[in-house]
Amino acid sequence: MPATATAAVGLAALLDRLVAEPPSRIHPVALFGRAVAPLDRDWSRPSLAGVVVAVVLPLLVGGVVFGLVSALSSVPLLAALLSGLVLFSTTSLRMLLVEAREVVALSEADLPAARRRLRSLAGREADSLSASEVRSAAVESLAENLADGFVAPLLAFALVAPVSLAGGAAAATWVKAVNTLDSMFGYPHKPHGAASARLDDLTMWLPARLTAVFLALAALDARALARAREQSDHPPSPNSGWPMATLAALLSLRLEKPGVYVLDFGSAPTPADAERARALVARTGWLFVLAVGVVVWF
Question: In the record, what terms sit under GO molecular function (predicted)?
Fold first, then answer.
């Protein structure tokens, strides 16, 4: 079992490095999003509908994955292969790094294009953002999406896979489904999304803080965590402030979402600063992969 789980982590990391993302027409997360999109509508009892969606759908897709991996448990190689594919589809590092690099490059060459490209990273109104604000949003998204889209599913796998490989794959799937529902429904103007947003807040509490720790470890600067803690509550999210503030503290940056929050540890990010942030996030991601591989092995 330990070798099988470690092989699954290694396969997922290798595929992320070589492939980045499957086409959206066959990407499991994109398919899940399209399947649940019709539920994003007005409901006569939005709170009840929201609770049912938030609870049932992640359990349903997690259960499907659990059943598929369990069915292959007698053939460890196939079980590891399927679990690795599950981890690959529920995590994303290379695509995050590529999108951030493109947004930053465009912020110098073509600001309107940079604003449009930013939508692939951050769900915010970008039409009036300056070049430095676009770069700030890209850096913020690097930190936040590292926690939500990479550390969180891998952490779920690491916590469960030593006991059950199928359970670990299902746990990673469950986390990704929770986060996807939040990204689709979890907005104040959608009352049916309140349950998805609250469940995502609970689910991401530990990954966000663990991401901050690993960012500090990757930068060899543990004192940044104390500096980040002073401003980690500035964003309205109970979680995203931790990785964002830690990244800003490590690189002495001022990150701002206009009219919402400011994380002030220095100056607005230049293109060179954004590249340093991207490199640190990449290093942190690979450090976390190594840590998960060790955890599931033992």
Answer: ABC-type vitamin B12 transporter activity; threonine-phosphate decarboxylase activity
